[in-house]
Design goal:
Elements lengths: L6 E2 L3 E2 L7 H6 L20 H16 L4 H10 L12 H22 L1
Antiparallel strand pairs: 1-2
The structure holds iron/sulfur cluster.
């Protein structure tokens, strides 16, 4: 006999929810067992320490099987902090600035 589902207030059920796509790729991350301090720096970090840390983190990303998904996630969200998909905070900030400039250029050309 199938198990009866328990009704939850608000019309939702306790049936298993479909997995979200971002959680699926995250399971294969090369950084899953690494310390988060490698990908997120502290505020007291010097520029040289940051450069070394980001180089080490992006080297891990270069070997990661889900780098493309991770980079797309970081750019689309956008993720302001940390190394994601081989990109750094600064590189994503530059990308956002470039995208805004492109959008502004297209808007002014269209008008
Ligand atoms: S690309 Fe880098 S940050 Fe993204 S999951 Fe892989 S190792 Fe982690």
């Amino acid at each position: 006999m199938p198990k009866r589902r328990r009704a939850i207030l608000g019309g939702r059920s306790n049936a298993p929810r479909p997995e979200k796509s971002w959680t699926r790729w995250h399971e294969h991350a090369a950084c899953a067992d690494l310390p988060s301090q490698l990908f997120y720096g502290s505020e007291s970090e010097s520029a040289a320490e940051r450069a070394d840390r980001e180089a080490a983190a992006t080297a891990v990303c270069a070997q990661c099987p889900v780098r493309c998904q991770c980079e797309a996630h970081a750019i689309n969200l956008p993720e302001p902090y940390g190394v994601w998909g081989g990109t750094t905070e600064a590189s994503r900030r530059n990308h956002r600035r470039w995208a805004r400039t492109q959008a502004y250029g297209e808007a002014t050309r269209a008008s």
